[in-house]
Amino acid sequence: MVGPLSPDSVGLVEPRSFRHEQPLALDCGRELPGFDLKYETYGSLNAARSNAILVCHALSGDHHAAGWNAPDDKRPGWWDNCIGPGKPIDTDKFFVVACNNLGGCAGSTGPNSINPATGRLWGPDFPIVTVRDWVRSQALLADHLGIERFAAVAGGSLGGMQALQWTIEFPGRVRSALLIAAAPRLSAQNIAFNEVARKAIMSDPDFHEGRYAEQGVVPRRGLMLARMLGHITYLSDGLMRQKFGRELREGKLNFGFDVEFQIESYLRHQGETFVDRFDANTYLLMTKALDYFDPAAEYDGDLARALARAQARFLVVAFSSDWRFAPERSRELVKALHTGGSAVSYAAIDSPDGHDAFLLPNEHYFGVLRAFLNRVHAELEVAA
Amino acid sequence: MVGPLSPDSVGLVEPRSFRHEQPLALDCGRELPGFDLKYETYGSLNAARSNAILVCHALSGDHHAAGWNAPDDKRPGWWDNCIGPGKPIDTDKFFVVACNNLGGCAGSTGPNSINPATGRLWGPDFPIVTVRDWVRSQALLADHLGIERFAAVAGGSLGGMQALQWTIEFPGRVRSALLIAAAPRLSAQNIAFNEVARKAIMSDPDFHEGRYAEQGVVPRRGLMLARMLGHITYLSDGLMRQKFGRELREGKLNFGFDVEFQIESYLRHQGETFVDRFDANTYLLMTKALDYFDPAAEYDGDLARALARAQARFLVVAFSSDWRFAPERSRELVKALHTGGSAVSYAAIDSPDGHDAFLLPNEHYFGVLRAFLNRVHAELEVAA
């Protein structure tokens, strides 16, 4: 059974909004005059308020991580296969919190919110936000929810970077951190892909220097290109071969520039559907947060020193065919954490699914998450 | 000394034009009513007319492979480091021919030529041309030059695909073939990158369905994006790290969307300069020729059977950090050629320069080319 009534689903969930009235100082030197965070929770917070897990989203994710917002939704939250009763992030044991990050386009304060100073949409004037800004705003949400210390902070890709930042920024507030398909910082190639994506959006004539909403248009072409390009980096070459090979959509070459190969059709579809649900200014902000993430920078590039503040127990997970954040990037993390004195488990998962693997069910992967979190949960019981 | 007077330069060269008046039947089922090929030659054809080497260009190359067209040119031909007196492709020994391919934008018949049937520019109506079409047109040029059999056909990347096609299409007319940084066909990922590049060009509002020239505009934004994306695939991740790392252009983050990291600056510069010298419709045609190249297709995907017709001796060269056409793609070629009964030398060159390595001087690489061609030359002497 699939759907909100399935016994392993968190069921119907209602997003909520957390309003923070005080200004938030940002890394860029500007401040947000108050903000909203859209969030969802699954499971129940225990009496000791010790069983909360914060799930952080990646580039295009949001607060809707699990369950269904309406009975007739076409699909559940983005990590529904992993979060629910009896699932690896087990809502029978844990209280799960997921929020849409600042700068997002799913209900949290971002480019589509009103800038109180001008009464207009923020649009391109929304400040550049960093992973650290997100973590600080998430901590204010945790305060609001009465969570002093998370049992775990977990995320894949950019979400994993947030989990890592939590352990540095608030060492005392994170019992464990799950860093999945992440990296300690982007490579020049990663930044290059982001730059082409941004250039595609910003050079779309419908971008209007970010004020497209006020013009009643959307830079569809640019955002679509950005997403198509993203998808190339999310899939492995092997998976593309396996899924699409050189298959022709109509069985033969048409000697024209219409879609011919199945892979073209797949990418265009991914691009087209994305444009309907995502905002271009948010895409720009998310890629900048990725580019800027570099906790070692304040320590002369010494990642181990940067991570020495952490007190959490770590689980680092990498996928064999991920070439966006390859396993060697995860091993950099593991090495630096070890050197910095942290307890780290490392799982290298054999998977053909590329970077996308962090979002897909996989017995070994889910087994590792489950085992790690079972241990975290057992310690909560002992502590209680 | 660098420049046309350098003793190892072929010096000042004047491009010529070959006019073929008869129609050329193309793979797409259409025919070109006559065509021009722009070409250059370096060195002297010997009395036996046996020492000619055809050099085939890659996606963005042209007929100007070596030497200088004018004394004040900023740079020489695209493979000048490899072609000249005493260089690996030694013009003291060989007569080198290089032409701009059909569909090109450097003087051969292409989208910017007049379609005699309409009196207008071909533009987007120029037929899709394949690697086989190119090889057939190059054979007509060879006829014109009185070259019955090439001592070698050589090329890197898409140029290597042409060299391979020569050995299948005209087995008796190729003594040896140099396939450098090539592949027997594109992977789904290769096609995906091409598709995003095409989409970038075709979705530029200045593209006007390919009739931009008649509108007096150029789809600069799209072509620039295509080139930036191309460059990511030409460089290795390691080289990017080494050349650009995460270096900031102004030493610190500017918390905005201007160019910040050195890699961004490099890519934008590459994109901007390309737009001034290359044509968007040609870019589309070249990527399609890449996508379509698949000599095994007519043999139920059996590459060895496809290559069994070949009579040439082969040199296959791959570069360790090339991820566009990785060494394993070259080994596919080597294996199929062996199975098909050909004589093959294979050189795996250790290089940090990614796919671009085929254009760059490298002692091991150039030594291999030199040794292989010396042997080809020695055989010519024996045969004479």
Automatic annotation (TrEMBL), chains A, B:
Protein's pathway: Amino-acid biosynthesis; L-methionine biosynthesis via de novo pathway; O-succinyl-L-homoserine from L-homoserine: step 1/1
AB hydrolase-1 domain boundaries: 52-336
GO biological process terms on file: homoserine metabolic process; methionine biosynthetic process
Keywords carried by this UniProt record: Acyltransferase, Amino-acid biosynthesis, Cytoplasm, Methionine biosynthesis, Transferase
SUPFAM superfamilies per the UniProt record, alphabetical: alpha/beta-Hydrolases
Active site as annotated: S157, D322, H355
Enzyme class (EC, first level): transferase
Chain segments annotated as transmembrane: none
Family statement: Belongs to the AB hydrolase superfamily. MetX family.
Oligomer status and interactors: Homodimer.
Protein's UniProt name: Homoserine O-succinyltransferase
